[in-house]
Every structure is written in structure tokens, then in C-alpha cells.
Design a protein that fits this description.
Helix content: 10-25%
CATH superfamily of the largest domain: Hnrnp arginine n-methyltransferase1
CATH class of the largest domain: Mainly Beta
Number of domains: 3
Distance between the termini: 48 Å
Strand content: 25-35%
Shape: globular
Structural class: alpha+beta
Number of helices: 10
Length: 429
């Protein structure tokens, strides 16, 4: 982010916030006591740190990885608080505290809850930087979802890639646009039903970076579904809330999240939409939806993920780097019999590009890289074929001895099962 971008971003955060800053001021004042130590995670311009000092904090450790710390130092000096606020320009995970805090505060929201990486940062800071029994702000984030009718937005963000420019067909790019969570501003009237709670994050207790939830909503008016509108309601402290639900977003300046469908679906009042959202700390997100009529007759089914939006296989994402299919090793006994059927773990995403595949288990955070041969084996295994069947098919396609192929497949399946990318089919019954 350039310095101009920083200035513009923080000008937006400080001057067009709805009542967001007032809500934070009230929450901080309600929990901070005279003499408290506070950590402000992702402090930015340092305004929350100033509010903490005014509430009685003895010392505030304001952590920020960007050059916004220089803005913060100027602003807290102007506020007369510089002697009680220590700015630390660092990734919070690398910061070692001099003293643990009584209160941890963060404003690292995004259109659908927390910023990518925000949950990991918050959980780590709570574990290392906060005293046992310390207080966190926010306390909880409820994630909300609703089908949305947004023809102009869809045309601008998705169908722009269905056109032709100077005789060049753009449609080969459209699938990548569908594989992104977009930022948009929607009115209450665009929602096809009231937003439903699809999940929640307990920031005072949660340790998992895997967030998932499901909801079934009933369409309340005839219309067209272009995708899903995601929003949130945050409890900062007891009785103090803020959010960006369309029509109820005066407490914040955040836009909403838009999860697109790859095609537009007509719906009528009474139709049901079953929705599931999965996320690994906001870095990777999958959204699934099944639309059915009042008689439960299927209308449409969608499954999309941000893996679909990758232009190249990911490198360095998550807690581990991609692990390639092992080179030829001596035969290792398969953990499951050769006649057993395996299934892809429900939380696994896959992305194939240029003959390579990257797999990610959203629940565990493990991801794994496959070359062209491993990709072919994965695709066959994903069809719930037995190892014996996969070996027979691949012997016809590759110039390799049965013994070598059998050993390589045994090794691959063992590793995929150990990493919970494949699981026994009967375990998912």
C-alpha cells in the first residue's frame, strides 16, 4: 500500500464511520479501568489507543505492521497521549510483550467479519499478550447471509467478462471473477429474504481458524438471485453492537460481501435456499447453495470457492508450504485395503491449473501439491474408485511397471489419508 493509499484509507476510516468509533469508545470506556494495560492490535492511526488512555489505561501497546504507525505517532502527540502509548511497528505474531495486558482491542473487521488473517492474529494476541481472564473487544461476531438481487453489480463485476472487446472474447476469464468474494453496497430491498445467522466467532474463546456454518432461508418475494450477500453484527462489549446489515448499517462504514453464483436463477416466494459457508481465516472461502421449490424440487445447485479465482497455484499460503507428490519410494502398505473406497474430505478444496493440482483442507489448514501424474490419480480417487481400479486405469495411460505404479499410488494414498484429504467413504455416512 502506497503512502497515499494509507492516507486515503485512514481518512475514510476516521471521517465516514457512521457511529463505529462511538461504539468502540463506549465499549472501551465500559471495560477499561484506571491503571489497566491495553494492547491495540492493528492500531492504524492510533485512535483506539487514544480512547483507551482517556478511559484510564496506564499503558497502551499499539501494534501496527504498516507505515501508518508514523501517522499514529503524530496523532497521539496532538492528543497529548504520547507518553502513555508505545507504537510497535511489527507483525503482531513476532512481537514479544514486556507486560501482558488487561484488555485486548482490535478493529480489524472486513465486509464479512474479520480481515483475512485477522482471526489468527487475534487468537495469537489473546493467547500471548493478554493476561488470564483478560477482556477482549470485540467479544463475538455473528455472520449473516441472504440471497441478493443485484443485476447492475453482477453486470459490472461478473458479466463484464462475458463480453467481446475489439473482437476478443473475454468469457474465458469469467470463471475467475466468480471465484472471488466481492465488496459491494446493497440496500435492504435487494435482499430476497431477511438475513440469517450462518455462523459466529467467539473471540473470547475460539482457538480454531476454521469457520463454518449453514442456514436454510425461505425466499420472501419473486426475483432473481445473483449470489449471496454476506454481512456481520459484532458485539463489542455487553450491550454495545455494530454491524453492516443492509438497512441497519448506521453503526459502521463497511460495505457488504458478495458471494457470486456462476449463473442467475429466477426464484419465487416460498422457494428455499440451503447455504453453507466455510473459511480458513478468510484466506480461502467456499460457498455452497442449493435452491429448491416449495415442494422440495431442486432448482439449482452452486459450489464456488476463492480457489477457483486463483490465476496461479498458491505458494506460501497457510501454515505449511505445498508438499509435492513424493518421488518413487519402496512400496508402503496402504492404510486402507486396495478394495476400500475413499472419499474427498468434505472440507477439501482443489484447484487444477497447467496440469498441477493444489489441495487445501479448510478445517486443518493443510495443503498439498500434486504434479500431472498425481493429479490424474487424485481425479480418479475423487470418483470413489478403489485403489485397484485406479491402478488398472493408470496402467493403460502411463508407461510404467505395475510394481512401480502400485508403490507410488500406495504412498500417495497413505499421505493423502494421513493429511485428511481423503477419508474412508464409510466414515462420512
Amino acid at each position: 500500500m502506497s503512502h497515499l493509499d494509507l492516507l486515503q484509507f485512514h481518512a475514510f476510516c476516521l471521517t465516514r464511520t457512521g457511529s463505529r468509533l462511538t461504539q468502540y469508545a463506549n465499549a472501551i470506556a465500559s471495560v477499561v479501568r484506571n491503571g489497566d494495560v491495553l494492547v491495540d492490535l492493528g492500531t492504524g492511526s492510533g485512535l483506539l489507543a487514544v480512547l483507551a488512555v482517556r478511559a484510564g489505561a496506564r499503558r497502551v501497546y499499539a501494534i501496527e505492521s504498516s507505515d501508518a504507525v508514523h501517522l499514529g505517532r503524530l496523532l497521539v502527540k496532538s492528543a497529548g497521549c504520547a507518553d502513555r502509548i508505545d507504537f510497535i511497528q511489527s507483525d503482531s505474531a513476532r512481537y514479544v510483550v514486556h507486560e501482558t495486558a488487561d484488555v485486548l482491542v482490535a478493529d480489524i473487521h472486513d465486509t464479512f467479519g474479520l480481515q483475512a488473517g485477522g482471526l489468527a492474529s487475534f487468537v495469537d494476541a489473546r493467547r500471548r499478550l493478554l493476561k488470564p481472564g483478560g477482556i477482549v473487544i470485540p467479544q463475538r461476531i455473528e455472520l449473516m447471509i441472504a440471497p441478493v438481487e443485484a443485476p447492475e453489480f453482477y453486470e459490472r463485476e461478473i458479466d463484464v467478462w462475458a463480453g467481446v472487446v475489439h473482437g476478443v472474447d473475454l468469457s474465458s476469464i469469467r470463471a475467475f471473477a466468480v471465484g472471488h468474494v466481492h465488496s459491494g453496497r446493497f440496500e435492504r430491498e435487494q435482499l430476497l429474504c431477511a438475513p440469517a445467522v450462518i455462523g459466529s466467532i467467539d473471540l473470547a474463546r475460539s482457538t480454531s481458524l476454521y469457520v463454518t456454518g449453514s442456514a436454510v432461508v425461505r425466499i420472501q418475494r419473486d426475483g432473481l438471485v445473483h449470489g449471496l450477500c454476506g454481512c456481520f453484527v459484532t458485539t463489542l462489549a455487553d450491550g454495545i453492537r455494530m454491524g453492516n446489515v443492509p438497512g441497519e448499517s448506521a453503526t459502521t462504514n463497511f460495505a457488504q460481501a458478495f458471494f457470486p453464483f456462476d449463473r442467475v436463477v429466477p426464484v419465487v416466494s416460498g422457494d428455499e435456499v440451503a447455504i453453507t459457508i466455510e473459511s480458513r481465516d478468510g484466506h480461502a472461502v467456499r460457498w455452497r447453495a442449493e435452491i429448491s421449490g416449495p415442494d422440495q424440487s431442486p432448482r439449482a445447485r452452486f459450489e464456488h470457492s476463492t480457489f477457483d479465482g486463483l490465476l496461479v497455484p498458491p505458494r506460501g499460503f497457510g501454515p505449511s508450504h505445498p508438499e509435492p507428490l513424493s518421488s518413487v519410494l519402496p512400496s508402503i502398505p496402504v492404510t486402507e485395503p486396495a478394495t476400500a473406497r475413499l472419499r474427498v474430505h468434505p472440507s477439501v478444496l482443489s484447484r487444477e491449473l497447467a496440469g498441477e493440482t493444489v489441495l487445501l483442507n479448510l478445517e486443518s489448514g493443510v495443503y498439498y501439491g500434486l504434479d500431472a501424474v498425481g493429479t490424474r490419480a487424485w481425479n480418479l480417487l475423487a470418483e470413489e474408485r478403489t485403489l485397484t481400479d485406479v491402478c488398472s486405469i493408470m496402467l493403460e495411460e502411463f508407461d510404467v511397471s505395475p510394481e512401480r505404479l502400485k508403490g507410488d499410488l500406495a504412498t500417495l494414498v497413505k499421505e493423502l489419508c494421513e493429511k485428511q484429504l481423503l477419508v474412508p467413504a464409510e466414515s462420512l455416512q
